[in-house]
Amino acid sequence: MADYYTWAEYVAEVKKLLPIEAQRIGIGTTATDYLTGLIRQAVIDLQRIIPGFQLRHETIYDQSDLVREGMAMRGVKPPQSSFKDLSIFRVTDDVIGSRFEGTPHPWEKRFDLVYGRAPSNDGMASYCIDPEGYTFYVYPMPEDENWKVSMFWNGQKLSFRDDEQVPFTEASCLAVMYFVKAHTSTEVEDNIQNKTDYMRSYELQKPKLYLSDKESRGE
What we know:
Elements: E1 5-6, H1 7-16, H2 19-22, H3 34-47, E2 57-61, E3 67-69, E4 72-76, E5 82-92, E6 95-104, H4 111-114, E7 124-129, E8 135-139, E9 147-154, E10 165-166, H5 172-187, H6 192-216
C-alpha cells in the first residue's frame, strides 16, 4: 500500500469491508452518502484516543478559499490546529504537476509577501503564519484556479475532501467497519442486538489501534 491514503482512498478501503452496505440503493451510491458520513463519524471518534490520528492532516485550499491581497494570497488555517508545513502546487487534468515547497517568513514582515518583496527561488514559495491567530499569507500564488495550497497540521479534523491526505491506517479500517455496521444495524435493519455486538467489536479494536500507534511512533 502507499505511505498514506487520501480520504477518497481510505473510504474506498473501508467500503471493501462493507460489500452489502456499499451497494444498498440510497446509502452507498454518492460521494456524500450515508456510509461516508458514518465513516467520518468513526474517524472523528478514533482521533480522540489515538494520538497518531491527529498528526499530519492535510487541508487543501482552492483559489476560492483564499483572498488575494496584493501579490500574495491570504487564508485561514484550521481552528485549533498546530501548523507543520505548507506548499503550493498545480493540478492539470487531475494530475499534480509543479509544486513549490514553502519556506517560513516572519509574520511581522508579512507585507513583504503582499508587495512581492519576499524571496521566491525556483521550487520554493514563502509563507507566514500569524503566531497569535489563524491567518496566513503565501507568495507567489499565480492567478490560475489550477494552483492550490496544501497545508499539513496536527490536531483533530472534522471534515475531509477526497484529495486530502489522511493519517488513518489500514488497520483502522476494520474498526471503522464495525462502527458503520453497528449504526446500519439499527438505522437500516432495525436489529438492536447486532448493533450491540458490532459496537463491542469496535470498542475492542480501540486499544489494539492505540498500542499499534504507540509502537509505530517509537513510544
